Amino acid sequence: MSAKILIVTGDAAESLEVLYPYQRLREEGYDVHIAAPARKQLRFVVHDFEPGFDTYTEKPGYTWPADLAFSEVDPGQYVALVIPGGRAPEYLRNDPELRKILKSFFDTDKPVAQICHGPLLTAAIDGLRGRRVTAYPALELDMQAAGATFQDAEVVIDGTLVSSRVWPDHSRWMREFLTVLRAKAPVT
C-alpha cells in the first residue's frame, strides 16, 4: 500500500497550485487525495501576471472533484499535507474542521508543503510562529504578524515545512518537498 498525501483546497484555488503537486506526487507513487469543505466539483482559477497590472489577474480555471469533505478526513491516514494558494485560503481558514486537520499535521511534525496564499491557513492555527517561510510576496506582513520570518525566495525549508511563493516556483518547491518526503515518508 502506498503512502497517502492530502491536498486541502476549495473553490478559487489556483489551478496549477493544486494540479501540479497532485500529478507530481502521483508520479512518485504517492496516493493523493483532495479534500474540500464538501465533496463536490471544485472550480479552480488561473492567476497570471500581465503588463500594466499592479497584481495578478484571475480567470476561470479547471474543475476537479474533491475526493472527500474536511469532515471525512482522518489525518492519521496521511503522511503529508499540501496547501495550495489562490483565493481559497482566505475563506478556508475559517473552517473549524480544516483547522483541526492542519493542527494534527503540525502537532505530529508531518511534512507540509504550502505555496502562495496557502500560509494563511497555517497562520490561522498558529503554525508559523518562530518559523522561516515564504509566500506570495504581498503576504510578507501577514507572515510577520503570524510570528514567522519571511524570506522572498523560490523555496524556504524549515524542518518539515516547505513553502514557496507562486506557481512559477513549482519545480523547485516540489523538488525540495520530495527530498523531505523521501526522508520522512517514503513510498512503500
Key descriptive features of the protein:
188 residues, alpha/beta, 7-stranded mixed β-sheet, two-stranded antiparallel ribbon
Description of the molecule:
This is DJ-1/PfpI family protein. The protein is α/β, with parallel strands linked by helices and 188 residues long. Helices cover 30% and strands 27% of the residues. It has six helices and eleven strands. The protein is globular, with a radius of gyration of 15 Å. The mean pLDDT is 97.
Q: Spans of 5+ residues with little confidence (pLDDT < 50)? A: none
Helix-residue proportion = 25-40%
Distance from N terminus to C terminus (CA atoms, Å) equals 7 Å
Average residue pLDDT: 97
Question: Helix and strand succession?
Answer: EHEEEEEHHEHEHEEEH
Shape: globular
Strand order of the largest sheet: 5-2-1-6-7-11-10
Largest sheet: 7 strands, mixed
Structural class: alpha/beta
Q: What is the strand tally?
A: 11
> Radius of gyration, Cα only, in angstroms?
15 Å
The helix tally amounts to 6
Q: Hey, roughly how much beta strand do the residues contain?
A: 25-35%
Layout: helices, strands, pairs:
Layout: E1 4-8, H1 15-27, E2 31-36, E3 41-48, E4 57-65, E5 68-69, E6 80-83, H2 88-92, H3 96-107, E7 112-115, H4 119-124, E8 132-133, H5 140-145, E9 149-150, E10 155-158, E11 161-164, H6 170-184
Parallel strand pairs: 1-2, 1-6, 2-5, 6-7, 7-11, 8-9
Antiparallel strand pairs: 3-4, 10-11
